[in-house]
Design goal:
Elements (H helix, E strand, L loop, with lengths): L3 H9 L13 E2 L10 E3 L12 H6 L4 E4 L9 E3 L16 E4 L3 H15 L3 E6 L4 H12 L5 E3 L9 H6 L8 E5 L7 H9 L3 E4 L7 H4 L2 H14 L7 E5 L3 H4 L8 E6 L6 E8 L5 E7 L2 E7 L6 H14 L4 H8 L9 E4 L5 E5 L5 H13 L5 E6 L8 H15 L2 E5 L3 H10 L7 E4 L2 H11 L5 E5 L7 H8 L3
Helix pairs in contact: 1-3, 4-10, 4-11, 6-8, 10-11, 12-13, 13-14, 15-16
């Protein structure tokens, strides 16, 4: 377990002989403090963590990293010069360590701690499917190894260091998600996490507004495979079906394993059958082996998720029995949830976020579902940049071929509405509304017993607020 001795060494370069004060975990939210924690006071736009140091100490934190004055009556060790006096004595906890920048200090401690750990790290990035892949890869690896996964979507310059500091010497594998917003970010995260295995899901249009283009997104995501160690220790698991990901093989010295739906991939699947909420059934092929399997993942697009987890299991030496056992864990499905209303309609709640790629996948799932009528409530998709028109139009065309009724929400969603109408969806079966209040009312009047309803949109629309209201329908 991380100790105060490790923290001082990480921040000063000197290993001191100090009392064995263990650090249970690192947190940035005082409400999450458990006894023995290190509270990292981060300044922010909405609130400043320095205001909550006292609360963190009341909850049992051993120490706090600070970069500004705090209103607590506890000793403060000043490490802004990165040295300690020769006669230094560790004060009784709780105490503060003052640094120039608490975020950089957190990252330095995580980088130091990762170097001390003898374990393998699996890094995952891509435009869509990172979190579900992380969950399923961790399920598979847990069949043989003590495995830590990054909680929630802690995939940035703050979340990843916090995850690394959860690791202790008993862990054998860590599965971490790596997000991308600007070039250089994933490269920086790799400097901290030191992944030996990198998994690329796909290159989509999400965040294109910020990044500029899919080409820039691909360059940013490729930083993961570029950071991997050379073969045989380094392994890049790449989506053969995505041309931009497939081309990343030329950018890495790691061993490349392709997965996909093509027999040209090292690991591939066919005979795919969507079973609605019962999962998916398909056949996996690898070298001279093939195996049929049914897994509790929703939607045929989840075959790629399963293949990523299989590839990780094979790379890490698991048997087929162990891999299949991990795939069949029932709680690996993230994000999308099925909600039955009191009036007998089934809602597919996919309100976490939306991109053209994930919305098309959700519509494909809706097409697999059996019900009286298929209804989609689709919100506008944000941050698409130059792909805004094309992305919304593709969704509208696909929706027209799937749904009996379509409700679109938000200004950009008018493009979905118009594309669906042009693709043949009649005016009485398509409606556009400006906000979720009107969308909820329109759906309330439309839905009937036996309907299957997909609700999906960008997180900024907060379409999740529709779900609780619709659940209560009598």
């Amino acid at each position: 377990m991380l100790s105060i001795t490790d923290i001082f060494e990480a921040l000063t370069g000197t290993r001191l002989v100090l009392p064995a004060l263990a650090i249970s975990e690192a947190v940035i939210d005082s409400r999450q403090v458990i006894p023995g924690a290190m509270f990292v006071a981060l300044p922010g736009e909405r609130t400043d963590g320095h205001q909550y140091v006292g609360e963190a100490f009341q909850r049992g934190a051993n120490l706090a990293l600070i970069q500004a004055d705090v209103d607590v009556h506890s000793p403060v060790i000043d490490l802004r010069a990165r040295v300690l006096p020769d006669d230094f004595n560790l004060p009784a906890s709780p105490f503060c360590i003052r640094v120039d920048n608490t975020l950089k200090a957190l990252q330095e401690i995580a980088r130091f701690w990762r170097k001390r750990l003898n374990l393998r790290v699996i890094g995952i990035t891509g435009s869509v499917g990172k979190s579900t892949t992380k969950e399923l890869v961790a399920e598979v690896l847990s069949q043989r190894y003590r495995t830590l996964k990054s909680p929630g979507n802690l995939n940035n310059e703050i979340g990843l260091p916090l995850t690394i500091l959860q690791l202790g010497f008993g862990y054998e594998r860590a599965v971490v998600e790596m997000g991308f917003y600007v070039l250089g970010e994933i490269s920086f995260l790799c400097e901290i996490a030191k992944p030996q295995v990198g998994i690329l899901t796909n290159i989509g249009t999400v965040h294109a507004e910020r990044a500029g283009s899919q080409e820039v997104i691909a360059r940013g995501k490729a930083e993961l495979v570029q950071a991997l160690p050379p073969a045989p220790d380094g392994v890049a698991i790449l989506n053969y079906d995505d041309e931009r990901v497939r081309q990343m093989a030329s950018l890495t010295q790691a061993r490349v394993i392709y997965y996909g739906l093509s027999p040209q991939a090292h690991l591939w699947a066919d005979e795919i059958e969507g079973l609605g909420l019962e999962g998916i059934r398909f056949r996996i092929h690898h070298q001279h082996e093939s195996i049929s399997i049914q897994v509790p993942l929703i939607g045929q697009h989840s075959v790629h998720t399963a293949l990523r987890a299989v590839a990780a299991g094979l790379v890490e030496g698991l048997t087929w029995d162990q891999i299949v056992s991990g795939l069949q864990q029932g709680h690996s499905q993230l994000r999308l949830a099925a909600v039955r209303t009191h009036n007998g309609a089934l809602i597919l709640d996919d309100t976490y976020n939306a991109s053209p790629e994930s919305t098309l996948a959700a519509l494909n799932l809706l097409a697999e579902m059996s019900g009286k009528r298929r209804i989609a409530v689709l919100g506008e998709m944000l941050e698409l940049g130059p792909y805004e028109l094309e992305g919304h139009e593709k969704v509208g065309v696909r929706a027209a071929s799937v749904v009996d009724y379509l409700i679109t929400v938000g200004s950009r969603a008018q493009i979905i509405h118009q594309a669906a109408r042009s693709a043949g969806l009649s005016a009485r079966r398509a409606a556009w509304v400006p906000d979720i209040v009107q969308a909820t009312e329109a759906l309330r009047q439309l839905m009937q017993e036996g309907d299957v309803i997909l609700i999906k949109g960008s997180h900024g629309l907060r379409m999740d607020r529709m779900i609780s209201e619709l659940e209560a329908l009598a």
